[in-house]
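Q: Could you fold this chain for me?
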Amino acid sequence: MFDVEWEKLGTIHGGWYVPSQMNLSEDSIIYSGGVGEDISFDLLLSEKYKSNIILIDPTIRSKIHYNEIKNYYVQNLWNFSGDIQSDYFEKIYYLEPSLQKIKFLDVGLWHKKDVLKFYKQDNPAYASQSLIDNMFGKEYDSVPVNSIRNIMVENNHDKINLLKLDIEGAEIQVLNQMLDDEIYPRYLCVEFDLCLKNKDINNDTEKVIKRLIDNGYEILINDNLNITFDRVKNG
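A: Sure. Below is the predicted structure, expressed as structure tokens.
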């Protein structure tokens, strides 16, 4: 553990605990996997560091929300169609994010390029979906997916400074492939949903966390399996 000051950037349910001062700048690259209808964390990062951010989510509702956010900051009109967190407005209303440096990519994160089933939740009010069978319901959309490495190549990125993953169980495949490809973002913010939802019958979460630590990452904070890592010694 590092002796650092903390802040939570974002809403109660969509925010992350991170060091109050991170090694990020206007030249940094941030990949945010799984954004749903809450990009408060990303907007606050944009406000604070002016970094380049790619939002990665294949759901239609997520793309609609991204466009509604842009309309809000352009027209100052609070008009959202989704399941909006009660503390969303207070977290983002005053911000001046660098919208020109925020890009939306409507694919899912996986360990390779493919088209896969993206399972919906039984409650239609919830936007999150999963590439993992038995995480949610049986209804699904077919969506394009891709690996971090392929996305980096397509966007001419040779590094990632911060990677956030809230991808409903697919984090295990994505992180293992990232390490196989020797990609090491300085910061990781990962929600380990497979374990949180008691679907991790093979202890894959424990294994990938150990692998991250073996590759130079240290756990900064573990907020109910929402874990923030830093690779400071090698980053």
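A (continued): The mean pLDDT is 93.
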